[in-house]
Structure to design on (41 residues):
């Protein structure tokens, strides 16, 4: 039950942090860049 509560809070904070579609796109783009950088190492 605690895991569900923690995940819900994390999701709410994530959605609050990027409250537009453009913001979500930028966040996904940054995540992709980090994954690519990790793959190059």
């Amino acid at each position: 039950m605690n895991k569900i509560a923690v995940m819900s809070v994390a999701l709410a904070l994530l959605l609050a942090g990027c409250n537009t579609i453009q913001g979500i796109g930028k966040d996904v783009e940054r995540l992709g860049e980090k994954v690519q950088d990790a793959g190059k190492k």
Notes: The chain has a mean pLDDT of 77.
